[in-house]
Amino acid sequence: MISCLPDMNSTVLVPTDTIAAARFFRVLGDPTRLKILELLNGGERTVGEMVSAVGQPQPRVSTHLACLRHCGFVTAERRGKEVVYRLALDGLDGIVGRAAEVMGPLAERLATCTRIGPDWM
Predict the structure, then answer these.
(1) How far apart are CA 62 and CA 60, in angstroms?
(2) At what angle do helices 15-28 and 31-41 cross, to 10 degrees?
(3) Using CB atoms within 10 A of its CB, is residue 53 exposed (0-12), middle (13-18) or buried (19+)?
(4) Is the pTM value of this prediction over 0.85?
(5) What is the secondary structure of 58-119 as a DSSP string?
(6) Residue-level pLDDT, tens digit, the chain, 121 residues
(7) Up-side HSE of residue 101: CA atoms within 13 Å toward CB?
C-alpha cells in the first residue's frame, strides 16, 4: 500500500531538513525561476538579458531574482549601471537533469494535473 502520509519512522530527513528540502524544491517549482537558473547555468547574465530570454516583465524577473538571491541560489554583482547574476550553487543542472529523467514517465500526468496549481504555490 502506498501512502501520501509521512513515514513516522523515516530517518531520511529530520524535520528541519524536510522543511528546508520542501522550500528548496518550491524554489525550483516555478517555471520562471527554472528558466532563470537554466540561463545562468550557461554563464552570468544581466537582468535585461534575462527579461528578454524569459519573456516576462522586468519587475516579475526581478522578484524571482530576489527570491533566488535570498535563498542562496544566485549571487549578484553591480557593474556600473548593470547588475550581473551568476549561479551560487554547483550541481543544480544535475538535479534538474535527474528530475527530468525521473518525471519522464509522469510527464503527461503532470501536464494535466489539476490538484496542484498556481494558487498552491
Answers:
(1) 5
(2) 80
(3) middle
(4) no
(5) HHHHHHHHHHHHHTTSEEEEEETTEEEEEE--SSHHHHHHHHHHHHGGGHHHHHT--SS-GG
(6) 343 444 545 555 566 788 888 888 889 889 999 999 999 999 999 999 999 999 999 999 999 999 999 999 999 999 999 999 999 988 888 888 888 888 888 888 888 888 776 554 4
(7) 6
